[in-house]
Design goal:
- The structure is a single chain.
- It is globular, with a radius of gyration of 18 Å.
- The chain contains ten helices and no strands.
- Helix 3 crosses helix 9 (189-210).
- It has 247 residues and is an all-alpha fold.
- 77% of the residues lie in helices and 0% in strands.
- It has one domain.
- The chain has helices spanning 2-22, 27-49, 56-72, 74-90, 96-117, 120-130, 134-158, 165-183, 189-210, 224-237.
């Protein structure tokens, strides 16, 4: 859990600095910051997506995960959580300005939660950290630094909702660390690679949101991150050749 706690601290500090800076930046600068983050997210997503050994696995994972996510309506649940958190902070204020602040808070919370919690370091690092492996903490330490700077950039443009992504980090990374402590080393290299590839595709979708190209409900695709390694494990159990043979 040490890596998760460090991650929460860096996001909180980064968000605080971003809020201080954001008030001094014009709307055009804030928009350009978000565009820059979108471009970087796109590049990272493409790089991670290339980790797959068979594109059919991410395809099946995304389609199945999207169906499950839409049925569960995960995106709406995250938005409701963001709205509830915002209402606790702002109170019952009405009017156009209050509605704008509510949407800004929810957008910041959901966007930051997705960016900070769907990368490969989140899953692999948290599990290994829970297992007590030093490499797990090192991976989360690297992630913490990156997330700290990301939180500063996001908060300067999207507001205080970004800071509350620490709750998502606590629940998700803390849960994965607990799973690692209880279940041990159960993730094979192919399982990690396919999960990384699916995470990359989700980051590409999130980049489309940041770049204002399209607004897919990316949170509803999150079950795909669990389905991908399960497909690899299932294929291995039934001796199904899922990767092309190298001559």
């Amino acid at each position: 859990m040490g890596g998760t706690i460090l991650n929460m601290i860096t996001v909180a500090i980064g968000s605080g600095l971003g809020l201080l800076i954001g008030n001094r930046l014009s709307e055009k600068i804030q928009q350009s910051v978000i565009t820059g983050l979108g471009l970087v997210t796109l590049v990272v997503g493409i790089e991670n997506a290339g980790q797959t050994g068979n594109i059919i696995l991410p395809l099946i994972s995304l389609v199945t995960g999207a169906i499950i996510g839409e049925l569960l309506n995960i995106d709406a649940a995250l938005e409701r959580l963001g709205g509830w958190l915002q209402s606790r902070l702002a109170g019952k204020v009405s009017g156009d300005a209050a509605d704008f602040q509510r949407r800004r808070f929810i957008n910041g919370f959901v966007t930051a939660s997705l960016v900070f919690c769907i990368g490969p370091l989140t899953f692999v690092g948290s599990i290994q950290d829970g297992m007590g492996l030093s490499i797990g903490f090192q991976q989360l330490a690297i992630k913490s630094v990156l997330d700290g700077f990301g939180a500063m950039a996001f908060a300067s443009s999207l507001g205080v909702g970004v800071a509350f992504a620490i709750l998502t980090i606590l629940v998700l990374q803390g849960g994965l660390a607990l799973a690692g402590a209880l279940l041990g080393n159960f993730m094979s290299v192919p399982m990690v690679n396919e999960m990384t590839a699916v995470g990359g595709l989700l980051l590409i979708g999130l980049a489309l949101v940041l770049l204002d190209v399209k607004k897919p409900r990316m949170a509803n695709f999150l079950p795909a991150l669990v389905i991908a390694p399960l497909l690899v494990a299932l294929a291995a159990a039934v001796n199904l050749p899922i990767y092309p043979q190298i001559p």
